[in-house]
Amino acid sequence: MTAISTNPVVSMLDKCKSLCELRQIHALMIKTNLFNHNFTVSRLIAFCSLSSVSGGLDYAASVFPRIQYPNSFIFFALIKGFSDTPSPVESLILYSYMLSCLNYSNGVEFSVPSVLKACGKLLAFDEGRQIHGQVLKTHFWFDPFVGNSMLRMYIDFGEIELARRVFDRMPNRDVVSWNSMIAGYLKAGEIELASGLFDQMPERDVVSCNAMIDGYGKCGRCDLAEKVFESMGDKDVVTWTSMISAYVQNGRPRKALDLFREMLSLGLKPDGPAIVSVLSAIADLGFVEEGKWLHAYLSMNKMESSSVFIGSALIDMYSKCGYIKNAYLVFRSISHRRNIGDWNSMVSGLAIHGLGREAIDIFVDMESMDIEPNEITFLGLLSACSHGGLVEEGQFYFEAMQEKYKIAPRIQHYGCMIDLFGRAGHLEDALRIVHDMPFEADVLAWKAILSASLKHGDIEIGRSAALRAIELAPDDSSSYVLLSNIYAKAGRWDDVASIRLMMKQRGVKKIAGCSSMLVNGKVYEFLVGKGLERSCSSHVLAKIDEAVSRLKMEGYKPDLSQILLDIEDEGKESLLNLHSEKMAVAFGLIHLNKTAPIHIVKNLRVCCDCHSFIKLVSKVYNRIIILRDQNRFHRFENGCCSCNEYW
């Protein structure tokens, strides 16, 4: 045996790097009669099955039938190799064959974890139960590797109660057992059960804590995620990534960005998911300076291609920060990868900028390169048509999605079509979609009808849509506000009062308009009619008065219909001047270099008066102003807006 194990032919396997070399070594084994020795053939099969050599597993499977007396190690290597493939049915077939060739005392237990893994992947419940029964009849049950594999199998089946029974009855539980059960509860959305088990753990490790941080973040309990994070002595990259992701998922992008900077200050190198989360946080904030800094960091550290998702996230970040040209440059630098996520991000980015024609051009390029679009592609494309007022094109691609690409529309696609018709004033067509689609209309669909009714002055359709939206989401203030605005525009002040009374009785509060901007590294926020003593001072009001005076000389007339209160015109004009986006523009005019664009992010839709005001400011003061509101981007330059008055 010693002579065989040290044979130079056998040792050549350790240096093998390709299937061609593997075939040569196999041929040499046959010529030198080494293939007839179980040790030698075991080494060959193990190398083929478990190494990274392309085609090695298939080659091992072709060699296996020629082995006269395969031992448990040969079976183990093949079963494990196939269990790691996407469709591991061969593992079950080989395991069944092994049981007919060997008895339980011949090392069968080493293959049990792999065959249980294969059952979980295949959702082979009956086969898994049979192996479970076999394990209980043997000494295998006392092997923690077998117990943990069985636990994970039931979790893969979605049988969380059976998994807990296995966990409770395991004779030997280790930290892997506890972590697996906690992960199973989190996967099943049972956060309370996961939390209870986490508190009972005799010994926690980094994996346990990371799982809970991630789980708490996904269920909206960022406070508990923070508590676990702060209690940890040793943190790895996954710990930081999980906490950063928790902040992003729970609408706290600034905290995510601050934590990322702290992570870098400690000398930790972020992984792909951390980068993607931080780029998402920057996109939420809309502050491109932070995004450019991170992009430079990625380039400097050669990390741009460390994850296929980073390119898509960069495109998304630049798009949502108002820099669509930068997004396009990133896209063109990586479009050769043919990654559908990159193309989808570009189409969606163009959509929120109202560049419908350009989004269609990207889609046509996709088709010419034979890149198969998916449902996300069409969601972006239909949204682009909606924001660009391309009604016929939207109808064409909605039909093409179904007929040419055989993609069944989801409720979001129907929502885009409702929005498309609604924005264009085709309210009857929008309602037809609502009634004919194979889904019950959700609150977003009814709010699209409601917004269109406000825009086009259809009180009855708006009222009906508002009542349906309020029924579906009684705590959402926007539906009440939109209906109140419809009534106010029609001068129906009694109805306005009844809506406000309804909101008061239900405890629904209107979301205040808020605009924010980043100036010299500091974030400034402006709340409609409030907060001047905190975020700015009387010189901002003076700047607004100055701007209004100069703009009136250019033909600006305050749109008093935007103040939906039953008060005198003079009071309405004063309230218009306190809109948050006007304050942000004035602050930018005062504090930013004259050549620097003024970037503003608003939480709600910009009103018609502020839109007209900012257009004229861009002309009179010769400034580029980029405003991201709740729905899309507006780029104001030389008295024009990129939306072409369609928003």
* Global Rg: 32 Å
**Low-confidence spans: pLDDT under 50, at least 5 residues?**
none
Structural class of the helix and strand makeup? mainly alpha
* Average pLDDT, all residues: 88
Q: Give the CA-CA distance, first to last residue.
A: 80 Å
Portion of residues in beta strands equals under 5%
Question: How many H/I helices?
Answer: 36
So what's the overall shape?
elongated
> What can be said about the biggest beta sheet?
6 strands, mixed
Helix content: 55-70%
Number of strands: 6
Strand order, largest beta sheet: 2-1-3-4-5-6
What key attributes describe this structure?
six-stranded mixed β-sheet; mainly alpha; 36 helices; 647 residues; elongated
